[in-house]
Amino acid sequence: MNVSLRNLKLVNVIVKEGSVTKAADKLFLSQPALSHQLKKLEEELGLKVFNRLNKKLILTEVGQVLFANSEKMLASMNQLNSELDAIKMGKKKNIRLTTECYTCYHWLPNVVREFRQEHPKINVKIDIEATKEPLEYLIEGKIDLAIVSTKSSHPSIHFEPLVTDEMVVILSKDNELSTQKTINLTDLINQDLILYDIPEEKNYVLTSILHNNVGFVRTIQKAQLTEAIIELVSANLGISVMAKWSVVPFLNHKNLEIIPFDLNVGKRDWYIASLNKISNIENSFVDAVKKHFNESLLKV
Q1: Per CATH, is 5-88 categorized as 3.40.50.720?
Q2: Which tops the pLDDT comparison, 103 or 87?
Q3: Can you tell me the distance from the alpha carbon of 250 to that of 238, in angstroms, rounded to the nearest whole number?
Q4: Which of these CATH numbers, 3.30.1330.80, 3.40.190.10, 3.40.640.10, 2.40.110.20, describes 94-162+269-299?
Q5: What's the pTM?
Q6: Tell me, what's a Pfam family for it (predicted)?
């Protein structure tokens, strides 16, 4: 037979209360009803759970096994109910998140660290593996939040505006375009563009700035690391397009200029993607991300 949680609770309460009468009161049952349930359990097991000696109930070997396991199972159920109540009240203690952009790992760990210091009971975990397919991981329930710049039409995903940043052209001070105030896409015709080595359909510069028209530039090269791109650009071996906040830390140490696009090109919206309504504690983390961005943009 399959022993139910109800059966385990029945045995557990009888043992702890010391009598059927007290156990019946604890379980809000009549004494005959509880005795009937116990008799039915023993009949289904084909074994006695209690020996009755001088009006006392003594656990048999089977009863001891049931009671020991009931302690574990009921404790687990109590923990489960507490965690579910915490989630319902917006007090969940775990946040699993990722971002679609590897450059975000230049700042995201610091935000997590500071958040943990302010909320030591909240475990925030960054799922780096999910970066390659953040929305897929979200739909599969493997993460709670995803920081993305591209919205999906999936009906189950909720997108909340996070921040807006700016993509700018970075180039060497020796580049012929370095004295311009703004850059038009047509200015790039003789430039070698260096981009991150990621799938083209996920490359924001290709899809949202160049609109997949590679004819705007002379050539396109790819590199995996921000530092590698910075070194190549600084040596005037090409130009790149990056988020303004990601380039600023290098400006004082490299032979670089940053120039904005004209006509409002390069403005990029970021979103927090989730499957459910964001909990109170998740919203606190979102506020921490917004604060970081706002402070970073003020320094730019």
Answers
A1: no
A2: 103
A3: 16
A4: 3.40.190.10
A5: 0.67
A6: LysR_substrate
